[in-house]
Design brief:
By secondary structure, the protein is an alpha+beta fold. It contains twelve helices and eight strands. Strands 1-4-5-6 form a four-stranded antiparallel β-sheet, with no helix packed on it. A two-stranded antiparallel ribbon has the order 2-3. The relative contact order is 0.16.
Length: about 575
């Protein structure tokens, strides 16, 4: 008997399909372009970084009214309810019910023949025979392989991944509002530059008309100056349309219908935002919400592999019931005569035609490898984005300094050309060319300043800045542990703006992936926190010596923990 049970338990496990593994990713560099700094601008709140009350007010309205954030709030609620559903699957199911019925059996059937010869309390059974039943049933699948609990833990990881996804959208929303706000300031300054140019050109036009009337200039000069004035007046209308569209882009982000957007456009060229500090590349693992989201999704995919693997093993189910049954209500609750009960245990495992289970197992492994590459891609994209934007900020800042010198020289040239023209010592074409160069230089300077501010804003976001703090943003969300209070993480669980583990401040660590047989490591990941080890392991066979007191937690400080064999133990909120 013992040998037979051992054969039932071991037979499915000895033929598990082999797993694939991911290719090695490039290690994360130790610095950004050789610059080492422990401080990161991502630690600054967006109010402090932008230091503009008007812009802060717009961002506040966006965080409250943006429709995309409201949609994401419902995604978080869905993730909450998924945890509740998964949690209920490994707990006992208890059903309470009652039944009443009437049955007439044929006299020439087995049941009818038996009833003809039976007596109850000295009386024959009634015909037809009533039936009254009140009973409770219990069914419970014993989670001996942690299949159900791993599924719940994967759902919990995806809940926090959804929160991180929302945080990333918040950082993008903050950046988009700021970027459109500074574009609006740039358009206002383009409008002011056109007004100044038209004013200068109108003076030249009036002077040309006066010189023509005095027979000192031709009609050609008047026509050329008038054409320049009309061209810039037409350009103003185009800029005005761009202003309208920029305002409405901001209104859309704020979740409101088109209306004027307040702003302060003075001193735009000299506007300076908070200085940027890149910090260490490994800090991106902590500060970038999209990296944290990919990290948690990868850990969840690893648990999916364990869930799929557990389906190869036998499942143990217990069923029981107790209640009262009688053909007359006056006998219904008489004990023990009307008492009924049953209990049964069932051990069932797959033996023949396991293709569907194998397909699910291999699909889970493929999805796990996809998550590995997605994590690598996210980290690579984040690092490259920071490098590009920091270089752009530096190069455009130097370009602005040079363009300011160019603009000063052109303003002097226009002033001198105008004076020479008025004194008949220069041709009108010299004035026209100088004015054209001036307006072009002003527009290019404004455009360059806009690009520089946009680069600063996006670099701040690329470093991980712009996320809101705390867990009180969604006032109508559901707690994943039950109830309808504000969303909050379990006790000792990392916040939504924290990674699963704190990254090393010097060199990021690597962790191995499983080989084809799921045992020895074959290759390494891109910079990989210790936290993801559980998400990469190929679902080892559950160990009976797992105790919650063992060390090696996945989500420090309190779990979900791993024992010395790397087996998944519990979440902090589990009893």
């Amino acid at each position: 008997m013992i040998l037979a049970c051992g054969l039932v338990l071991s037979l499915p496990a000895c033929r598990l399909p082999k797993l694939c593994c991911a290719q090695k990713g490039e290690p994360l560099p130790d610095s950004f372009n050789g610059e080492v700094s422990l401080d990161s601008s991502a630690q600054l709140g967006w109010r402090e970084f932008f230091d503009d009350p008007t812009l802060s007010g717009l961002i506040d309205q966006a965080l409250v009214g943006n429709q995309e954030l409201k949609i994401l709030a419902q995604d978080i609620r869905i993730a909450n309810f998924e945890i509740m559903a998964r949690q209920g699957e490994y707990l006992p199911f208890v059903n309470l019910g009652a039944r009443a019925g009437l049955e007439k059996s044929s006299v020439y059937s087995r049941e009818g023949a038996v009833e003809e010869n039976l007596l109850a309390n000295g009386k024959a059974f009634p015909d037809p025979l009533p039936e009254f039943l009140v009973a409770a049933n219990v069914s419970w699948e014993i989670d001996i392989w942690r299949k159900l609990r791993n599924a719940k833990d994967a759902a919990a990881l995806r809940y926090f991944a959804t929160r991180d996804g929302q945080n990333y959208v918040v950082t993008r929303l903050v950046a988009e509002v700021a970027e459109n706000y500074y574009e609006l300031l740039a358009l206002d300054n383009r409008m002011m530059a056109l007004d100044k140019t038209i004013e200068i050109q109108q003076q030249s036009l009036d002077f040309s008309i006066a010189k023509k009337e005095a027979a000192r200039e031709t009609e050609l000069a008047v026509q050329r100056f008038e054409a320049e004035v009309r061209k810039n007046q037409s350009e103003k209308l185009i800029v005005q349309q761009q202003i309208t569209e920029a305002e409405n882009r901001i209104n859309f982000l704020l979740g409101r219908y088109p209306q004027p957007v307040p702003r302060q456009s003075a001193s735009y060229i000299d506007l300076q935002l908070h200085a940027l500090s890149t910090g260490l590349p490994s800090q991106l693992l902590q500060n970038r919400a999209d990296i944290r989201q990919a990290e948690r999704e990868l850990a969840a995919r690893g648990l999916d592999v364990r869930v799929a693997r557990a389906r190869f093993y036998p499942s143990l189910s217990l069923t029981a019931g107790v209640g009262y049954q009688a053909f007359n209500t006056k006998y219904l609750f008489i004990s023990p005569e009307s008492l009924i009960y049953n209990a049964a245990g069932e051990l069932v495992g797959p033996l023949i035609n396991r293709k569907a289970i194998k397909a699910d197992y291999l699909s889970a492994n493929a999805a796990q490898i996809q998550a590995v590459y997605d994590y690598q891609l996210t980290v690579l994209d984040a690092y490259t984005e920071v490098i590009n934007l920091m270089n752009k900020v530096e190069n455009y800042s130097q370009s602005i300094a040079i363009k300011k010198q160019q603009l000063a020289a052109l303003e002097s040239s226009v002033d001198n050309a105008t004076k020479l023209f008025q004194n008949a010592r220069a041709e009108y074409m010299e004035v026209l060319l100088a004015q054209r160069d001036l307006i072009e230089a002003r527009m290019v300077l404004i455009e360059t300043k806009q690009e520089q501010l946009s680069a600063v804003v996006n670099a701040y976001q690329a470093l991980g800045g712009g996320a809101y703090g705390g867990y009180s943003f969604l006032a109508d969300a559901t707690n994943p542990m039950g109830g309808t209070e504000l969303i909050a993480p379990p006790e000792n669980f990392p916040a939504a703006n924290e990674p699963l583990t704190q990254p090393d401040s010097t060199t990021p660590q690597s962790q191995p992936l499983p080989t084809s047989d799921g045992d020895a490591p074959a290759t390494d990941l891109l910079p990989y926190p210790d936290a993801i080890r559980d998400g990469l392991d190929a679902a080892p066979t559950p160990s009976s010596d797992a105790t919650p007191q063992e060390t090696g937690s996945l989500l420090k400080p309190d779990g979900p923990a791993l024992n010395s064999q790397g087996n998944f133990l519990k979440w902090p909120w589990q009893s």
